[in-house]
Fold this sequence. Notes:
Layout: H1 17-27, E1 38-43, H2 50-70, E2 79-83, H3 98-102, E3 104-109
Parallel strand pairs: 1-2
Antiparallel strand pairs: 1-3
Amino acid sequence: DLFEDPKAKPNSYELSEKGKLLLAKEAEAFIGKTFKSLIIKAYTDHKGETSDNQVESLARAEVVRSYLIHELGFAAERIVAFGFGEQDQVDTSRTYGYEGRNRRIVLEAL
């Protein structure tokens, strides 16, 4: 639940308070480590237009990038944000919660 509820706030790219805490905790794994780049990969679920999902995922990746830089002190030149939209769905089961599992942010150090 990194972002405000997308159903309650459509097109919102605002980090939730819980999301800020979660992101700070996840970012701790990279503090003090040597890496060339920190890649932010953002994904959406399959609902909606493919082009809209692409825009949404990139916008969310950019919000995470901005938070890492401005709030957590990461070097801007080392962080790259990518939006992959509905590509690479991790759960296609159509069972309860599958959409939320597909809406995700992945941090990857290179």
